Amino acid sequence: MKIANHWLGKVMAVLGMGAAATQAVAQDMGMDETINAAVAPVSNAIASFIFYAVPVGGTSFPLIVGWLVVAGWWWLVWFLLSISALFSSGVLVMPYR
Fold it and tell me: Does pTM surpass 0.90?
């Protein structure tokens, strides 16, 4: 298998291009600024995707908040149903004396 066709090869090529582009800038910046400059486009894209907001009632509502509320309710119901199923089936949660 050629490394160019492998996904790891593609990732390494992208990182290599980013490293080559930041080497010229790295001479004027410190190591932390160089890392921030190299990672900023990717981190900004991820942050804009995760914290995408939609307008609701004249204000912006981040979709991650809605996702967390729905997930919280889902797991609350899931665990309540699983506990009630344990008690209704006669499984004792407390040990015998």
Answer: no
